[in-house]
Structure formats: C-alpha cells, structure tokens
Specification:
The protein is an alpha/beta fold. Helix content is about 40%, strand content about 15%. The longest helix is centred in the first third of the chain and has 18 residues.
Length: about 500
Amino acid sequence: MSMQEKLDTLSKLRETVEAGGGQKRIDKQHSSGKKTSRERINDLFDPGSFKEVDVFANTEVDYRKAKNPGEGVTCGYGTINGRRVYVASQDFTVVGGSLGRVHAAKICKVLDMAMKVGAPVIAICDSGGARIQEGVDALDGYGQIFYRNTIASGVIPQISVIMGPCAGGAVYSPALTDFVMMVSGTSQMFITGPLVIKAVTGEDVSMEALGGAATHNQISGVAHFMSNNEEECIAQIKSLLSYLPLNNLDEPPAYDPVEPAIAKETLVDIVPVDPNKGYDVRDVINAIVDANSFLEVHQYYATNGVVGFARVNGQSVGIIANQPKVLAGCLDINVSDKIARHIRFCDCFNIPIITFMDVPGYLPGVQQEYGGIIRHGAKLLYAYSEATVPKITIITRKAYGGAYLAMCTSALRADTVYAWPTAEIAVMGPEGAVNVINRKEIAAAENPVEMRKKLVQEYRDRFANPYIAAARGYVQDVIHPQETREKIIDALSDLSTKRASRPRKKHGNIPC
Ligand code: HXC
C-alpha cells in the first residue's frame, strides 16, 4: 500500500467512526428531539479543544471487518471555559448506545485518565443498557464502571447527564455520581420498565411518568437538575462546573465580586417578625450573595429546604437553608437526605458552607417515624460534624430543639455562628413548651385561654431570643441583618487558612 493509500484508509476509517450509526439513525435521533453524541460534545466543549480517545476501539480487531463504529460511545477530553474536563457520550445511533465490553473499557479509560490528572468527568447517557449479545461481558463492564465511580467519588466531580433512555442496572452509574441532570420529555431512568411493572404488579404507567425528568426531580430525588431541552441542559452543566474545583486538592475558581441583586436594606422586611408567617428564603440568599450567582440544586425535591451554590465576593460557597414557606421549614426525611448529601459534596471539594437557619423542628408524624426520620435526620448531624470546610451559620429566626443542632451549631463545630435579633433559640417553641411545663397551671386557671396566652408571651420574652445563646457563647454575635454579607465575607477571609483534622480511620459509617 502506498503512503497515499494508507492516508486514504485512515481518512475513510475516521469518517466511518464519525458517521456513527448512519444518517437514517441520526435523523431518527434528531426527530425525537435528541442530538448525537458528537453534537453534544461540540456544544459542551470550547471550540477546537476536544481530543477523542480510542477512536478506533472495536470488538473486532481486524479493522477491515469492524462493525459498530466507536462501539456506541464517544470518549475524550477538552476544555469547558478553559478548564480540563473528561467526557463519555453514549451514541444511541450505534446499537442503541448499548454497553458491551469495549464500550465499557472506553468509559473506564476516561475515568482513569480523569483520576490521573484530577479533572471532572461528565457521562452523557443515551443507551438501551447492557448489550444483550455480549452477555456477562456487558455486566462486568458495568461493574468496572461502578467500581471506578465509587473510587473517584470525593476525588473528582462526576456529573451524569441523562439525554435518552437509562434503564436497568445502568442507572447505578449515575446514582453513584455527584449530580444527575435530566431533560424533560427525552430522558428516562428506571430499574424496570412499564411492561415489566405491568406484568409483575399490574400497575399501568407511562415511561415518562415512571422515570422522566419531573419524576426524578420532584418525587424520587434521583435527579438534581431538570431542563426543557438539551441546550438548556448544556448551559446548566457549564454553570455547575463554574462553582467546582477540578479535584479534591484544588480550590474552586474565583470570580470578580458583584453586589447582590436585592438590596441589603430589604433584609429587615423579608423575614417577618411574626414566627408564624412564611417567606421565601431565596430572597434572603439573593440579598446576600453576588448577583445572579445562586444556582439551586435539587430545586424541585424536598422543597422545605434549599441547597445550592453561590458566590460571595467572587468566592464559591455551598448554600444550605430551611425554607419557611414550605412545611414551615421543618426537617423531614427527604430534606435531611438532600441537605446531608450537599454538605458532603461541599466538604469533599473544599467549598465553604453557609447555613441559613429558620427551623421549628423535625416534622412530627407517624409516617415520618415509620420512614426512619431518626436515621435520616441523623445524617445531618453526621455530615455537619464530619465536615472540615469553613462552616458559617446565620440564625435568622426559629432555632428549636434537635433541629437547631442539626442545622450546624457551634456544638457541631460551626466556625462562626451569627444570629439576627429576630432569632428564637430554645428547646421548644413557646406553644409547645407551655403545654408541657405549665399544663397544670393552665388547667387550674379561671380563664385557661387567657392564662395560656400570658404564659406563651412570658416564655417568648424570656427564652425566644438570641441573647441566652449569645450569653453562653453558642452564638458569636447578634448582628443587624444588613451586615450579614459583610460578616460572611470577613468570616470566609478569616477562615481561609482553617485547619481541622479528624482521627485517622478507614471511613466512618454514616447512618442511611
Ligand atoms: C443490544 C440494543 C439494545 C440492547 C437497543 N438495541 N437496546 N441492542 N442490546 N440492550 C438496539 C435495537 O435492537 C435497535 O437496533 C437499536 O438499538 C435502536 O433501538 P430501538 O429499539 O429501535 O429504539 P427505540 O424504539 O427508541 O427504543 C429504545 C429502547 C429499546 C426503549 C431503549 O431499544 C429497548 O427497550 N431496549 C432494551 C432495553 C433493555 O431491556 N436493556 C437491557 C436492560 S438490563 P437496530 O439494528 O434495529 O437499529 C441492563 C442490565 C445492566 O441493562 C446491569 C448492570 C448491572
């Protein structure tokens, strides 16, 4: 073969790989509202930065007989806003993006490469699952990926982007990663599909209702982000990455400081002095963090709590807050899971945690007890206690009982705790407390209703304020709400050299 013939062969082979499953299947992909694996990569990475790895990987070693171009997955690395990121993007046009031995080996290789250099990995899932023809080799391939996802956890950020089907055991790779993103209408995740469910339990359910973006964002909590189309999803990935370091030994990127979008003067009006009135804690957050920097995570799940990322004076922070407008901001099973996971992510990746506390307690109820609110609620205590990143807590209003402790107090090693003058820090709320400690007095009173009212007021005046906690040193200072941003900026600066260590151990045993 002449040199020219060799070069022609190379071009032809490359073109074949890049054509994926062919125009007909590409057209089908487009007509169902989905892009191809390579189009998604183009949208995600900085122009010209993507380098593909294992371009010619194939189960067939004789290149003249190679089938299944790219083996149903496009892998490589490049830069996103100038920062190195690795990707495995499944190609549904090739055998339905199904995963066989070589497909899995390609994904494993990018995971290994990302671990070696310390860079985030994005997996774009669009697959019919285990390649049935490859049997146990396909199953082993999944096992190899699950193992790597687990070992990489806490070392490099891992983001799973579901842009098509993701069924059966395949769902466990996304579940092992840090964030799952889904696109409405075109992505589904489930262990067993509608047909199997119908056969086993008799339930009728559509693919979308069973495992669509809304289901996993609102009901199951499996997914953290939802978008209306792939463009929006790609923008979400880029936004999320902007808060994260490349790995656990790196610092999050710094941005230019921006003043908050909501004037700090409004803070005194956002939180009602009346403890029975709700408000949207996101207004408090947006009056404190840099304008347009708040990115909510798990926005539609367990909405009695709010978690996310933001920047304060250009620095990445993790935000955790009770949401008084939903269930009065009580802690329940789902919100405990949501908050604990966010704390642990931030702690893995050196992102300081700012907690806004306004919590009446753990949610009472038989279903909560039966569901294990004890073990789920314990995750909060565990995650905050374990975290060694700077922890700054602002008590805006209610801070009662175990929930007060669980939202990061000095006992759990918060570094800085500030309270607003509206804070109420006590074992119980006034109504509950007088029922216990003044029960006989109320029963014996001539006018029990009036007596109860009087005792509630006395309790409120005496206990429901921040000054007892401040007198004991549990609260560092009681501050004007308008000072909060400046106090947080100072605290972040003061804590930038924080050192904290824990006893050497293999790993802890978080309640679950
Ligand atoms: C081999 C597969 C495949 C698979 C799809 N294809 N899934 N080939 N193994 N798992 C092929 C199809 O034969 C077809 O080939 C092409 O991909 C496109 O698939 P279509 O069915 O035409 O596409 P569509 O109508 O959009 O339906 C998509 C789908 C369906 C809903 C995903 O393909 C499907 O139900 N696939 C099987 C899903 C499944 O049960 N997977 C196994 C899960 S168990 P042609 O040549 O006709 O274009 C599992 C275990 C993992 O994954 C365990 C890990 C621990």
